[in-house]
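Below sits our specimen:

——
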Amino acid sequence: MSRVSTVRAWEILDSRGRPTLMAGCQLASGRTGTASIPSGASSGKAEAHELRDGDPQRYGGLGCRQAVAHVNGEIAQALSNQLFADQDAFDITLRMLDGTPNKARLGANAILAVSLAYSRACAAEAGLPLYAYYAREMGNDSLQIPRPTINLFSGGLHAGGQVPIQDVLVVPAAAANMDEALSMTYAVYYAAAGIAEERYRYRLLRADEGGLAPAFANADEMLAVAVEAIKAAGYRPGEDVMLAVDVAASHFYRDGGYWLSDTPIDSKAMVDVVAGWVEKYPIVSVEDGLAEEDWDHWPALKAKIVGNALVLGDDLLCTNPDRIEKALAMDAADALLLKVNQIGTLSEAADACRIAKQAGWKVTVSARSGETEDDWLADLAIGWGGHQIKVGAITQSERLSKYNRLLIVEAQAGLPMESWPNVD
């Protein structure tokens, strides 16, 4: 049990130069914890409400002063000198204080910042590394390093929409550890950069999450060049290095059609397109292959590619236990992309993780496009037993802070890497 002494928040900037929150929590024991939270560009409609100020004269309306004021005022008053049995009890208090289904009154950004800061303070009080604290809370006694899926090429909302699909990622499948995974990815990334410069006259400019964004003609070309880059780096596509795709289909779905080009296609045709990609390219994971509310066709997508690639739900599921239960009932997916800020507290995200894993799903713990240099996500992915981690490219300090944390934990604790996808 831990007694809260004070909580406080500050407005800081994320990796896109937009405001977000940092919160601090001090316990009566004197132990403290701070946490900075991310913000997404590609966000699902069912996500918890991120409170913004709406003042067009300041950060284009994206300021977070109201959320900060809620932490420093109402939230701090409610938590001060209160004793909490665990993270669940702490987060329940925050949710009850807000009193809305999607945390719209106080703001999910305010609530999550405090939830994370409290967890860091509790880990310090327990004398545990953060990943070990998260593992204890989750009941996970088999710690491993999650296998990374790392951004190579970007389109969609992360790169100005030059290609409708959002990301093509490399999966260093043959890597024995994190050190080798990053070394392999480096070789592929800079092979891709060389192709982009020579073929597309593309300078080494990067999208929100560090991916390269040449002017590909279409998604097929994007995938084909990814395979070419793997070969140019000296690896075997489909054996040493595989691909994952974040289609983010909600963002090019309108009026009942998917606009991959100037002519829309219906849901059935979109399923066939995605299945064709999986057949043609070494793709082991497809994220949001259909729009978030196109529920009726997700089972068909899963039936088409199951056994060859994961059907990974992001906007579809929004780390929301109710939506995960619906997907289970419909047999609509077999993997969860877990983003803590989609639901707004650690304990609710942990519930989502448990439901998915108990169903036999894979879980990918994910960062957001607007990140900070904070590295708590790496500890959470280890502690909660994430099978994969999706942080971004191997550039930019807000991405590298997580990768470097994984390297340090791997070296210090000697943890093995998750074997998914299974390779000999």
Q: What stands out?
A: The CA atoms of residues 274 and 289 lie 7 Å apart. The first strand starts at residue 2 and ends at 13. The mean pLDDT is 93.
